[in-house]
Amino acid sequence: MPPGVPDTRLPFVNDTHAVFCTLQKIMETSSQERVAVGVDSLLRMSALYREVMLRQIRVLQEASSVTEFIAGEVDTFHSMHAVWHLLEIIYLTTNLPGLSTSIVPYFMEWLNLNFPAPLAEDGQQILASADLALNTELWPYMKKLALRGHVSVLANTLERVAPELSAQAAKWARDIAKTARNMPLGSSEETAGSFNGRWRRWSEELQNMATAIASLQPSDDVALESLNTVVDIMRGDADTISEEGESWQDILGALLLYSEPTAQADRLPSLAGVVVEQFQATEFSVLDRALVALLNYELPEFLVFCNQIDPWLSAHMADLMDHISILDVCRAAFAVDPREHYLLALGEIYVGHENLWQVGLDYLGLGGVAKCVMVEYAVRIPLESDAKARQVLGVCKKYGLAAAVDRIHRQLGRQQWRRGRLGAAIAHFAEVGDRASIGLICDQLWGQYLASGVLAYGPVVDSVMAAGLSHERLLFLVRFRDFHESYKAKQFVEAGGILLAILESEIAPPYAVADLLVDAIPLLEGDVLVFSAEQTLELMRCAEALVQSQFPGRVVDNDGELKIFSVACARNLARSYLV
Questions:
Q1: Alpha carbons 473 and 475: distance in angstroms, whole number
Q2: 514 neighbors 546 (Cβ within 8 angstroms)
Q3: What integer pLDDT is reported at residue 553 of this predicted model?
Q4: What's the rounded Cα separation, in Å, for the pair 259 and 22?
Q5: Which residues have a Cβ under 8 Å from the Cβ of 227 and sit 6 or more positions away?
Q6: Which residue of 101, 197, 245, 293 is surrounded by the most CB atoms within 10 Å?
Q7: What is the pLDDT at residue 64?
């Protein structure tokens, strides 16, 4: 996979992510209910993965312009599907209850689906030629049909060409076609003994046919020579199969089909070893190495080669292998848990993508990656909008990433603060209990009021208080606004009560006490007696406490505003005694 997921892969990533999450849910539910997940359920999920791979191949092949990159992607997805399909056959399909445990029919299905040969269009072109028997491509085509087990197509082709052959060759072509159509096919309802008996008789018929053809074969009759080769392939002659097979997959498939039709999966390592030895390992592709490692049950090496094919493959393959309980051998060979390692690597790729960050976090969270590691990835996700921020926080809460939630809220709070969206900033700080930052914002609001003389912070305070946030600085701002509104409405007694309540409850920051005392002066000097003697003494006590604290807030000097406040208190005290 190239750095940065290409747009052509986005549908594939999203579709397989959905399958991945569903599979994890199935496994989680089964664990909670203490019920084992059946092979059929795992096979269905595996088939869903393959369905998405095949769909991606079709989409790429139908692209308006097939660039070198697109061609490379097609090859990659073909490789991924071939690897996935073979593992599915070995560990899932042949373990389904009620089905034949022989791997041969499934292996041939895998071979012809992932490495199709001969191509149908090639056959059509050959059969459409004017002089079919003289077409030099005819006999290689029929040998390939035999190698791949396409016996029905082989029989049809033999009957088609028979009229154009010599009398002897025509006779044997028709006989071989008839025998090919009678090739025994096994079923889950037939006993192994019954099938083996039928197969043995069929093989003996082919052996007799080969002997007869060899005895009649003129050295210059290409048709008879080729027919003999076809018969040798079908009777499972290893030398002929090895000579005619173009790839190790061809040879292995033909040997399984014609020599060991009832072979089970555990026969693959020894048979594959014999076949692979006929080829130079240095010429093998990464796909070849992955498939051979899988056939030999060398699972640690298999996973390494899967990762070389594509990180998506190694991550999802390790996950599936874990669910079918074959990953432990890899855990013993790896320094780290392979499932967690490969899912982390894949999640890291997706987290950095603007459209796949949530997919990436799911792979990290469901992959068992440590929370401390997930936190570091989560906090690095760009938060371009409030909606995305909410989504990121939601995913973090889903996976219990408390540290990430805390850091993201603080980060968002600082961003909103810088943008002047103080209400939103307070809300974020409140989510993580950052009372210090909330206090600083309230200080800023109070400072703006003092500088402008306009009490404009009402909407900000109301929005956060409506959300149920409790903070002494916010309460102070709210109560001071109530005082201010009562004073403007000339409800002086009520205003005085609010002012005194603010001072007594000590919700006002120390630096604001002086301003509150100065605001009390008009009430003390007014025509209406607002403060009783006891209340006046409380105001004087607050003033004395302010002087003793020597708080470096708003300038309050004994010769200025504080002196005026003291005189006003004395006069109000005297008036209160006369009432």
A1: 5
A2: yes
A3: 47
A4: 41
A5: 169, 172, 173, 176, 213
A6: 245
A7: 78
Which tokens is 379 given? 């906090």
In this structure, what token pair is assigned to residue 128?
Answer: 């459409």
- Token pair in block for residue 295: 């056939």
Residue type (1 letter), 70: I
Q: What is the pLDDT of residue 116?
A: 92
> Would you state the structure tokens that stand for residue 245, as one six-digit string?
């097979």
Take residue 444 and report the two structure tokens written for it. Answer: 């800023």
The answer to whether residues 291 and 247 touch, using CB atoms and an 8 Å cutoff, is: no
Phi-psi region of 80 (alpha: psi -120 to 50; beta: other; left: phi over 0): alpha
pLDDT at position 219: 61
Burial of 43 (0-12, 13-18, 19+ CB in 10 A): middle
* Residue 310: its H or E element: none
> Hunting for tokens 């969206």 — which residue is that?
421
Give the mean pLDDT per block of 10 residues along the chain (579 residues).
Answer: 77 97 93 84 96 97 88 96 97 74 91 90 88 91 95 95 92 95 83 87 94 78 92 95 95 95 92 92 92 96 97 97 94 94 94 92 91 92 90 93 94 92 89 90 89 84 75 88 91 92 89 88 89 90 82 51 87 84
Report DSSP state, residue 353: S
Q: How far apart are CA 442 and CA 556, in angstroms?
A: 22
CB 49 within 8 A of CB 84: yes
Is 316 strand, coil or helix? helix
Q: What is the separation of C-alpha 1 from the centre of its chain, rounded to a whole number of angstroms?
A: 14
Q: Which of 38, 20, 31 is nearest to 324 (CA)?
A: 38
Residues 532, 535, 539, CA angle at the centre, nearest 5°?
135
Distance, in Å, from the CA atom of 309 to the CA atom of 28, rounded to the nearest integer, reads 29
Which pLDDT score, from 0 to 100, does residue 467 have? 65
Contact 556, 546 (CB under 8 A): yes
